């Protein structure tokens, strides 16, 4: 049993389809009303059929009450770090501390280049992400003196103003899959946000990947529990017969999610679904049941 | 204001919560535009604009294009990609329902908040914005608008409709009038249920303004006159085509005036969600209907059959006083001690007697409640209706489950049950729901212990302005019980396809504790209010007429047929006679005649009219 001691967070992952903008917002509102803690949207600015994720997050935050919002994950190559830091802090202020920052190094380089971004190798992507996290945290740190200076391999500034100051300490959750990125998550991140279907062995990858993050964290003098572990899963549905991961009765969902928490220390669940009734049942039925089961097992 | 008037918010200087308040206030007060400006160092203007668009539903939102250079330095952490900025503005246009204005050329900024500065800025022919920092500043901008109302530009005047004295709108109303060429028109033309195109909407926020609106309306008696509060009327008569609308949606205050008596003063424009939220800290509630978005004005003058009615009575049974403006423009108060005749009429047929401007309502203490929503599959609709009817009639007063059912698909129908158990104890909630859950196999269920205010929140329609289209078709019939015959004929009506949805609201309990005749609302012996909706009036009637014959009357809030027969269904002869007599006294000129009109004229004159 692995346990990093975090409270559980339950989220959804909604497709930001531009054609159905109001449905997208409605799904977030429904998630909020169903007691779900977090709503996330993917960020692919070059994808013309998607809404822009930054404005969507702000719009959704204004229409909801309790739910937190985050990109899953923000596309660094097209979101310059100081711009991202300021938009993030602004929304955190407006929403009373309901913003968290999901962040990734980017993929689909042809598309990124086509709209003006620069192509990076995977190795360069890791360095750029590290630099970006340093700049973002520096912009948020309004107590520090002087402007932000950074002379890195990928970002340079000799005087960016600090601020605005976020309403709460915004967490940075990294979408990481490869060893170097996992290590960066351990040294610089507040959370690790992988999509389980994209892990080499699905959920079975957790022990190995967790260990890499833990090692890097410890080597950097941090506690492994400084990094929350997520799992993004596809929400199949609530059929009567168990068919697979998150595809079957409520009890099955409950056991599967609780299993991830208890076996692998996952404390953030993000369910991908665009179906209102799945969203509602997940929030109203599964979430309380998982909390209860995990609390009981944790003792 | 000729070209549109709005406010400019400085995202760099104002605290976050204030930005939201100012934008919402500007929208509430009927301004056209809120522009988010700001320089480096404060909140990000684009993020603020997106937030403001989300926090509002009608007002235009302006944001200045940053004007970024075409080829950014990708190593500069402060330089956004033009492509991405563009995309976010496009996305905001979609999200906001086309309310985004991209500046800076789309508006002009007045140098200060004087009328001269506004006039000078208006010369540019685009909307004028005035920088504001407080709610008081916003209100001052609204006043500026008053001075300049009449001189709208030719492009707006070109869309005026015949028979309306646009230039003669009284000054006190000028701030709130919306005519077809105005930018705000789209957001006020239609209601929740019905598409409309009124010639002039008079938004009134004080008793004085309501009086002025009524006086103005009296000069236009040949045109339809709609009265609107929350805009959720089933019949959609709070809009029209080519006529006037008096809109008191802005009178939405909720104020506790006597904590010992739990007496609450509520404006007609408040939504029931707003009422519930305001009373939540006191641990009180006023029952309304099942939808948080419905307005006070329409419901509290008609009845109010809701989740708490079986325990608290109808909403009108909790009303202790009503203030309204009569057809002659005079304000009046009605209660058990003041104008009791009028008070009687206002509780059931209020729309015929004036425009209500405030209600004093006695709230009841309430704890958390069980909020349930169940979906059952039923093969035999008639049997299921009868079963539901039996269980509902036997349920204790704390249990109210409404029901909805549609035409069968593949031989089966889905019955939706939703409602409240007014008890916070989970075991009690479950035991109350169990008999309902036995009606058929459950395919979906959710039961939560919630604050009553959350129930109203969950059933709110959300912001977005009313965008109803076409003509609604609904028929309303009250039944004592679901006898096998009622159930069978109702099931046939649903199966015929003529009726799209059959919805049933459980009555009984405390509703029947009030003596028949105590209010104009009649048929207190009803056990169920049934509403059927469809798309074609002829087909709905063909399907529903046989069932209506078994009913005991009608509740007009779910009816769209304006014929005198339906009025007779709602009010039995002695009640209707008394209403007619009062109508002669309070509205002899028949000004309020758009929604289930009670004709004040004697029967022979009415007959003559019908013959012609
Ligand atoms: C989704 C939905 C669910 C509903 N559920 C229920 C329910 O559970 N129980 C129930 O009882 N009803 C219910 N209703 C019906 C609702 O109560 C009525 O339609 C009510 O009239 C709506 O009030 P409003 O102020 O929102 O509507 P409006 O459209 O503004 O007004 C409707 C009519 O009321 C009159 N009116 C409005 N304001 C005033 C005023 N200030 N003074 C005098 N007359 C006025 C006018 O005749 C007007 O045409 C529901 C309606 C909808 C759309």
Automatic annotation (TrEMBL), chain A:
Pfam families listed in its UniProt record: Bac_luciferase
Q: Which residues form the Luciferase-like domain?
A: 19-228
Keyword annotations: Oxidoreductase
Superkingdom classification of source: Bacteria
CDD domains, sorted: Tetrahydromethanopterin_reductase
Give a yes or no for keyword Oxidoreductase in this entry: yes
Asked if the record carries the keyword NAD, the reply is no
Give GO terms: molecular function aspect only.
oxidoreductase activity, acting on paired donors, with incorporation or reduction of molecular oxygen
Protein's recorded name: LLM class flavin-dependent oxidoreductase
What organism is this sequence from? Umezawaea endophytica
From the broadest rank down, the organism's phylogenetic lineage runs: Bacteria, Bacillati, Actinomycetota, Actinomycetes, Pseudonocardiales
Automatic annotation (TrEMBL), chain B:
Flavoprotein listed as a keyword: yes
Source superkingdom: Bacteria
Where the record annotates domain FAD-binding PCMH-type, the positions are: 193-366
Kindly give the Pfam families that the UniProt entry links to this protein. Bac_luciferase (PF00296), FAD_binding_4 (PF01565)
Keywords, A to Z, come to: FAD, Flavoprotein, Oxidoreductase
MF terms in GO: FAD binding; oxidoreductase activity, acting on paired donors, with incorporation or reduction of molecular oxygen
Residue runs in coiled coils: none
PROSITE patterns registered for this protein in UniProt: FAD_PCMH (PS51387), OX2_COVAL_FAD (PS00862)
Question: Which co-factor is required?
Answer: FAD
Q: Mind telling me which InterPro entries this protein's record contains?
A: FAD-bd_PCMH, FAD-bd_PCMH-like_sf, FAD-bd_PCMH_sub1, FAD-bd_PCMH_sub2, FAD-linked_Oxidoreductase, Luciferase-like_dom, Luciferase-like_sf, Oxid_FAD_bind_N
List the Gene3D superfamilies: 3.30.465.10, 3.40.462.20, Luciferase-like domain, Uridine Diphospho-n-acetylenolpyruvylglucosamine Reductase, domain 2
Q: Does the keyword Oxidoreductase apply?
A: yes
| PANTHER family linked | BINDING OXIDOREDUCTASE, PUTATIVE (AFU_ORTHOLOGUE AFUA_1G17690)-RELATED (PTHR42973), FAD-BINDING PCMH-TYPE DOMAIN-CONTAINING PROTEIN (PTHR42973:SF39)
**Family the entry assigns:** Belongs to the oxygen-dependent FAD-linked oxidoreductase family.
User: What name goes with this protein?
Assistant: LLM class flavin-dependent oxidoreductase
Task: Name the species this protein comes from.
Answer: Umezawaea endophytica
Provide the organism lineage as a comma list. Answer: Bacteria, Bacillati, Actinomycetota, Actinomycetes, Pseudonocardiales
């Amino acid at each position: 049993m692995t346990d990093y001691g975090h409270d559980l967070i339950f989220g959804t992952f909604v497709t930001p389809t531009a054609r159905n903008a109001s449905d997208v917002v409605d799904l977030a509102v429904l998630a909020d009303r169903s007691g779900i803690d977090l709503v996330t949207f993917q960020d692919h600015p070059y994808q013309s059929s998607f809404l822009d994720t930054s404005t969507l997050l702000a719009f959704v935050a204004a229409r909801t009450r309790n739910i937190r919002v985050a990109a899953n994950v923000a596309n660094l190559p097209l979101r310059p770090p100081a711009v991202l830091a300021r938009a993030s802090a602004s929304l955190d202020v407006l929403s009373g501390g309901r913003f968290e920052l999901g962040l990734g190094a980017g993929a689909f380089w042809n598309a990124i280049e086509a709209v003006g971004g620069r192509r990076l190798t995977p190795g360069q992507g890791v360095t750029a992400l590290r630099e970006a996290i340093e700049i973002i945290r520096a912009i948020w740190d309004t107590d520090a003196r002087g402007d932000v200076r950074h002379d890195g391999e990928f970002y340079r500034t000799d005087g960016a103003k600090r601020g605005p100051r976020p309403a709460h300490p915004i967490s940075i959750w990294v979408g990481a899959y490869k060893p170097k990125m996992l290590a960066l998550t351990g040294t610089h991140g507040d959370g690790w946000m992988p999509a389980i279907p994209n892990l080499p062995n699905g959920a079975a990858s957790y022990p190995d990947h967790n260990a890499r993050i833990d090692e890097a964290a410890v080597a950097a003098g941090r506690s492994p529990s400084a990094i929350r572990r997520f799992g993004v899963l596809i929400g199949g549905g609530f059929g009567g017969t168990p068919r697979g991961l998150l595809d079957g009765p409520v009890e099955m969902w409950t056991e599967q999610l609780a299993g991830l928490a208890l076996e692998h220390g996952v404390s953030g669940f993000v369910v991908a679904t665009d179906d209102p009734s799945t969203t509602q049942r997940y929030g109203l039925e599964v979430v309380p049941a998982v909390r209860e089961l995990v609390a009981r097992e944790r003792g | 204001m000729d070209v549109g008037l709005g406010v400019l918010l400085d995202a760099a200087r104002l605290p976050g919560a204030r930005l939201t308040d100012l934008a919402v206030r500007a929208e509430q007060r009927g301004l056209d535009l809120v522009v988010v400006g700001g320089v480096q160092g404060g909140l990000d203007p684009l993020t603020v604009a997106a937030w403001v668009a989300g926090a509002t539903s009608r007002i235009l939102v302006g944001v200045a294009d940053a004007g970024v250079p075409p080829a950014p330095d990708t190593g500069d952490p402060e330089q956004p990609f033009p492509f991405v900025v563009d995309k976010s503005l496009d996305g905001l246009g979609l999200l906001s329902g086309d309310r985004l204005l991209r500046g800076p050329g789309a508006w002009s900024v007045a140098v200060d908040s004087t009328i001269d500065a506004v006039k000078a800025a208006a010369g540019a022919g685009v909307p004028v914005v005035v920088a504001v920092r407080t709610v008081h500043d916003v209100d001052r901008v609204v006043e500026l608008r008053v001075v300049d109302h009449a001189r709208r530009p030719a492009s707006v005047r070109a869309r005026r409709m015949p028979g309306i004295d646009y230039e003669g709108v009284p000054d006190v109303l000028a701030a709130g009038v919306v005519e077809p060429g105005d930018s705000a028109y789209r957001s006020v033309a239609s209601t929740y249920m019905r598409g409309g195109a009124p010639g002039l909407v008079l938004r009134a926020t004080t008793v004085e303004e309501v009086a002025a609106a009524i006086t103005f309306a009296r000069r236009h008696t040949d045109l339809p006159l709609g009265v609107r509060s929350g805009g959720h009327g089933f019949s959609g008569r709070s809009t029209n085509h080519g006529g006037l609308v008096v809109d008191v949606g802005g009178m939405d205050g909720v104020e506790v005036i006597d904590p010992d008596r739990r007496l609450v003063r509520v404006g007609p424009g408040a939504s029931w969600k707003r009422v519930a939220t305001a009373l939540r800290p006191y641990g009180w509630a006023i029952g309304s209907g099942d939808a948080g978005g419905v307005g006070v004005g329409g419901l509290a003058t008609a009845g109010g059959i809701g989740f708490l009615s079986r325990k608290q009575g109808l909403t009108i049974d909790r009303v202790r006083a009503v203030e309204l403006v009569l057809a002659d423009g005079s304000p009046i108060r009605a209660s058990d001690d003041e104008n009791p005749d009028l008070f009687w009429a206002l509780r059931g047929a209020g729309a015929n007697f004036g425009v209500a401007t405030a209600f004093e309502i006695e709230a009841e203490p309430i704890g958390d409640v069980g909020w349930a929503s169940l979906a059952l599959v039923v093969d035999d609709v008639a049997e299921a209706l009868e079963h539901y009817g039996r269980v509902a009639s036997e349920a204790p007063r704390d249990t109210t489950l409404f029901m909805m059912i549609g035409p069968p698909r593949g031989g089966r129908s889905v019955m939706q049950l939703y409602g409240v158990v007014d008890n916070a104890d989970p075991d009690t909630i479950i035991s109350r729901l169990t008999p309902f859950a036995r009606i058929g196999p459950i395919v979906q269920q959710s039961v939560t212990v919630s604050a009553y205010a959350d129930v109203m929140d969950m059933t709110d329609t959300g912001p977005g302005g009313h965008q109803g289209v076409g003509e609604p078709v609904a028929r309303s019939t009250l039944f004592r019980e679901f006898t096998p015959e009622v159930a069978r004929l109702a099931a046939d009506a649903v199966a015929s396809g003529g009726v799209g949805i059959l919805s049933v609201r459980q009555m009984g309990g405390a509703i029947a504790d009030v003596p028949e005749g105590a209010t104009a609302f009649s048929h207190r012996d009803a056990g169920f209010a049934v509403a059927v909706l469809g798309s074609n009036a002829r087909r709905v009637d063909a399907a529903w007429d046989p069932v209506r014959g078994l009913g005991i009357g009608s509740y007009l809030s779910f009816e769209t047929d304006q014929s005198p027969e339906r009025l007779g269904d709602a009010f039995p002869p002695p009640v209707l006679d008394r209403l007619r007599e009062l109508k002669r006294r309070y509205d002899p000129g028949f000004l309020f005649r758009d929604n289930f009109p009670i004709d004040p004229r004697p029967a022979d004159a009415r007959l003559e009219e019908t013959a012609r």
